[in-house]
Amino acid sequence: MAVSCLLILVGCASSGKPSYSVERYLLGYTAPSFSKPVRLPVFIKFNRFSSAAAYNTTNMIFRNDPYSLDSFNYSRWAVHPADMVCDDLLEDMRTSGLFGAVFSRYEEDEGRFVVSGSVDEFYLRIDKDKKTAVIGISISLQDTRERETGKRMMFQKKYFREAPLADSSPRGYCQAASQAMQVLSRDIISDVYTAVKVVAE
Questions:
Q1: Nearest 5°: phi and psi at 13?
Q2: By the number of CB atoms within 10 A of the CB, which of 98, 122, 131, 191 ranks highest?
Q3: How far apart (Å, rounded) are the C-alpha atoms in residues 175 and 5?
């Protein structure tokens, strides 16, 4: 399971203050593969993902208990987690070869099936004996050709994954979060494929 993180160093300095570097991270992993996929002749469109207010930030959040949260001083995500998760999932879906085309929110092309989502949890949990990357995502899939509002929603589902840190550092957190996202991506793509296949055939 290949997992890597893109690290961007940003130097900061001002008069009379010591210089320091801010490390910015992106999730990185090998896109999940699917054995002998049958490509469905359908178009998928991604909406922009939303985020729970607590994680709507580039701060790398960690939590020691259910009631408090904090963040690393000199380590950040390069982009907001909601955008990072959405972009990774979109790219993985394109790479899967399971669909005719997959469009981002920036493209004018429309898709019959629309994927929306939200990042509900995205943090490092610190327990006494271990550290764990936690990701929780909600995904919904709609069929825009369905005229009845009640039937337009194909499914709405929560996905959750934890991954232990092998290295107790912000980079180690990024690597563990990447492992968790790799598994979540495969599960989400499989569910979308199964739901679309029923109505597309």
A1: -155, 150
A2: 122
A3: 6
HSE on the CB side for 150, CA within 13 Å? 0
The single-letter code of the amino acid at 150 is: G
Q: How far apart are CA 162 and CA 184, in angstroms?
A: 10
CA neighbor of 156 nearest in space, from 201, 184, 195: 195
165 neighbors 157 (Cβ within 8 angstroms): no
Instruction: Tell me the C-alpha distance between 123 and 142, whole Å.
Output: 28
pLDDT tens digits for range 23-53: 999 999 999 988 877 899 999 999 999 999 9
Please say whether the beta carbons of 107 and 101 come within 8 A. no
Q: Would you call 162 exposed, middle or buried from its count of C-beta atoms within 10 A (0-12, 13-18, 19+)? A: middle
Average pLDDT, rounded, for the chain: 90
User: How confident is the model at residue 91, as a pLDDT?
Assistant: 97
Burial class of residue 88 in the structure, from the number of CB atoms within 10 Å of its CB (0-12 exposed, 13-18 middle, 19+ buried) = buried
pLDDT at 148: 79
- pTM beyond 0.85: the answer is yes
For tokens 């099936």, the residue is: 113
What stretch of H or E contains 187?
A: helix 170-200
Q: Under a CB-based contact definition with an 8 Å cutoff, are residues 85 and 119 in contact?
A: yes
